[in-house]
């Protein structure tokens, strides 16, 4: 469980972060939340699906076909620091171990002090602060990611509301038999109802386009072909 504390250049003056990927860092997850601003990049590699939450729906990039399965990790074992076999890694993964907080009208940056990414020597990982205490280039990049995620999450509420208003979300279950004879079944997921989308009139399409929602909608549809790629990755072992 994350243990976030407010980041500052005194307590964390010498903080360094390991930026590779691996199960040791908690990257062995089958999915990660994404925002609409990422859909174009995400659809090139991962299926984009929706999942119901207590407050509505969230969008996910799928990395595997079972809990704890990430088919994009390239580390040799559970303790190794490895890589990620795709050109784009979702922001929710890349920003680790940092989180954004809100204090009044101010956005703040927190760090998960229990993260395995912080367990590195003085010459390992990325420096968070420079010698004089100003943010290192790595932290500037993290700040940009966190701001994009924050703004994206706020915008997702209106995007989801538009999908629901036009009845564009439909539930589906994904089932497949793998080459070794085992079966995978993913339930509780939602995608874009392509029949409803195709039947929308010009006024509805124009409204979605002007709101900037039409492109991410079609990115979701296009991304579903990546289920085949996930199956192939799984079959290759």
Structure description:
- This protein is α+β, with helices and mostly antiparallel strands and 237 residues long.
- The protein has one domain.
- Helix content is 31%, strand content 24%.
- A five-stranded antiparallel beta sheet has the order 3-5-4-10-9. Strands 1-7-6 form a three-stranded antiparallel beta sheet, covered by helices on one side. It has a two-stranded antiparallel ribbon with strand order 2-8.
- Strand 9 and strand 10 (183-192) form a beta hairpin.
- The relative contact order is 0.19.
- Given as residue ranges, the uncertain stretches (5+ residues, pLDDT < 50) are none
Output the helix-strand order: EEEHEEHEEEHEEHHHH
- Going across the biggest sheet, name each strand in turn: 3-5-4-10-9
Number of strands: 10
Number of helical segments with 4 or more residues? 7
Give the strand content. 15-25%
Question: Which class of secondary structure composition applies to the elements?
Answer: alpha+beta
Rg from C-alpha positions? Answer: 20 Å
Indicate how many domains the architecture comprises: 1
Rounded to the nearest angstrom, the distance between the terminal CA atoms is 30 Å
Tell the overall outline. globular
User: How much helix, percentage-wise, in residues?
Assistant: 25-40%
> Main sheet, how many strands, which sense, barrel?
5 strands, antiparallel
Mean pLDDT: 93
């Amino acid at each position: 469980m994350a243990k976030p504390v407010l980041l500052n250049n005194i307590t964390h003056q010498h903080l360094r972060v390991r930026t590779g990927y691996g199960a040791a860092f908690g990257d062995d997850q089958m999915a990660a939340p994404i925002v609409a601003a990422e859909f174009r990049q995400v659809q090139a590699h991962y299926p984009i699906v929706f999942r119901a939450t207590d407050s509505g729906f969230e969008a996910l990039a799928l990395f595997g076909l079972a809990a704890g399965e990430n088919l994009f990790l390239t580390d040799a074992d559970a303790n190794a620091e490895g890589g990620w076999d795709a050109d784009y890694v979702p922001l929710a993964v890349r920003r680790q171990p940092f989180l954004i907080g809100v204090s009044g009208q101010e956005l703040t940056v927190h760090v998960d002090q229990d993260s395995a990414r912080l367990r590195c020597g003085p010459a390992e990982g990325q420096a968070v602060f420079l010698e004089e205490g100003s943010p290192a280039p790595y932290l500037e990049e993290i700040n940009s990611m966190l701001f994009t995620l924050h703004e994206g999450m706020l915008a997702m509420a209106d995007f989801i509301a538009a999908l629901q208003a036009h009845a564009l979300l439909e539930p589906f279950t994904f089932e497949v038999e793998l080459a070794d004879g085992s079966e995978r079944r993913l339930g509780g997921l939602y995608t874009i109802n392509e029949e409803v989308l195709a039947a929308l009139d010009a006024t509805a399409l124009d409204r979605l386009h002007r709101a900037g929602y039409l492109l991410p909608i079609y990115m979701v549809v296009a991304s579903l072909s990546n289920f085949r790629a996930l199956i192939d990755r799984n079959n290759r072992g």
